[in-house]
Amino acid sequence: MNVYDSVRMRDALIVHGFKETTKPGQADVILVNTCHIREKASEKLFSELGRLAQEKKKGALIVVAGCVVQADGVEILRRSKLIDIAIGPQNYHQLPELIEKYNRKQGRIIKADFPVESKFDFLPLPKQSTAAAFLAVQEGCDHFCSYCVVPYTRGCEYSRSSKDIIAEAKALVKAGAKEIMLLGQNVNGWHGDRGKDLGDLIREIAKILGLKRIRYTTSYPSEMTQNLINAHKDTAKLMPYIHLPIQSGSDKVLKDMNRQYTVKQYEKIVAAFRKARPDIAISSDFIVGFPGETEKDFEETLKLVKRVGYASSYSFKFSARPGTPASLMKNQIPEEIKTKRLMKLQALLLKQQKEFNQKTIGKVFDVLLTERGKVRGQLLGYSPYMQGTIVKAPTKMLGEIVRVKVTGASATSLTAEVVKK
Ligand code: SAH
Ligand code: SF4
Q1: Burial of residue 32 (number of CB atoms within 10 Å: 0-12, 13-18, 19+)
Q2: For 4-19, how does the pLDDT look when each residue is reduced to its tens digit (9 = 90+)?
Q3: Is 138 touching ligand 1 by the criterion CB < 6 Å?
């Protein structure tokens, strides 16, 4: 979501006559986008600002955007004198004007309210795009998981209309996108048109000529619909991959987290996906060391992982975020126990990821080549199952979808060779 937001801010600035550079030394304005989800992500802002002190001295304007501003705007301005403008996630459409208006003598600006208008109605349509593009269809969250800051930083749930989304998707494809990843904090809760769900939206987007692949993330288990699951069966452009975070394998912990499903219900949804698309890759997020999590609860998570068999996953130590109910719960878990549990869980997840990757050796499928590899003559891309894939291919193939045969696999990536279609 933050990559998407950065791109939209860049596009808004380009319309106002700015040009993009990735070299801070060349920039008149430096934009630092921030994430507040865990303490570690939040703290990154200050190390990044430290690195920008030189550019600031040379006269660059420093803008900090994102959820850290929404949550802690005044505090970060106090902590770092380097920041000129701080802007929250719902105010991005106002950024060009704020920069133009900015006058050092009048002092620093902070803009982090929830305006009545939606930024999506003011941000310009994209004129440039990478081969794999992001598109936010839904933002914010009403679930209030007891550990999470998203409902406070991104606000309540908001779905864009399909008309608005399709216009943006077409603009992205015109600008070169071959794959679109639909984004939302609860993307499968999308309800932008009355009576329609994300499955319907995906089928509509799939009609866009030139668009080859569709993905979506992140889904909330209990908002999953059979219609969306069916889209994996009937819509060829929809990739066989679903990110479905469970967070914990213990019903007691899920209840304390205020997640609105049980482990049994989650596994039923997984089974429905596998019925619709037997080869689908499933991934999840996990939090270990949630307040009150016992060794037995943690073992339940390991058992769940073994039962489901994940293709990949993200796992985190519980981070007590200010203002959330979980940060005030008794029975906080000591750091060393969290670390031990995380290591154990990650070892299991990595083993499963390696097994999943190895199972694809010898398979032939399409890869969208999105980046240059570290070594000359190699390009990087993603398989339909979202596996990072290193392909022997000339640079001119960058941005292309090529058919490959998988020749090798490690826990983190595949190697593959181009074959004729
Ligand atoms: N809406 C999505 C997740 C969005 S946040 C969902 O509900 O599944 C992305 C991930 O960050 C979460 O899935 C969770 O695993 C992790 N996360 C969020 N808050 C956290 C916290 N306080 N400590 C540790 N991990 C957290
Ligand atoms: Fe946060 Fe996701 Fe829970 Fe919403 S559903 S509060 S974004 S973890």
Answers
A1: buried
A2: 999 999 999 999 999 9
A3: no
Probe target for ligand 2 pocket from 38, 146, 183, 186, with the most ligand atoms within 8 Å of CB: 186
Question: How far, in Å, CA of 294 to CA of 297, rounded?
Answer: 5
Ranges of residues in the chain whose predicted pLDDT is under 70? none
**331 plus 184 within the same structural domain:** yes
Please work out whether the CB of residue 71 comes within 6 Å of at least one atom of ligand 2.
Answer: no
Q: Do 250 and 348 reside in the same domain of the chain? A: yes
Assess whether the C-beta atom of 257 lies below 6 angstroms from ligand 2: no
**Which pLDDT belongs to residue 13?**
95
Find the domain containing 106 and state its range: 2-111
Does 141 share its domain with 196? yes
**Which ligand is in closest contact with the Cα of 150?**
2
For the chain, what is the domain count?
A: 3
The sign of the CA dihedral 253, 255, 256, 260 is positive
277/248 same-domain check: yes
- For residues 274 and 292, membership in a common domain is answered with yes
* Pocket-testing residue among 43, 148, 219, ligand 1, by greatest number of atoms within 8 A of Cβ: 148
pLDDT tens string 5-54: 999 999 999 999 999 998 989 999 999 999 999 998 888 999 999 999 99
Q: How far is CA 392 from the centre of its chain?
A: 28
Domain limit, last residue, from 316, 331, 358: 358
CA–centroid distance, 142 to ligand 1, in Å, is: 14
Q: Are 244 and 270 in contact (CB under 8 A)?
A: yes
Give the atom of ligand 1 at the shortest distance from the alpha carbon of 314. Answer: 15
Q: CATH number of the domain at 30, please.
A: 3.40.50.12160
- Among the candidates 313, 328, 358, a domain finishes at 358
- 22 C-alpha to center of ligand 1: Å? 29
Round to the nearest angstrom and report the end-to-end CA distance of the chain. 34
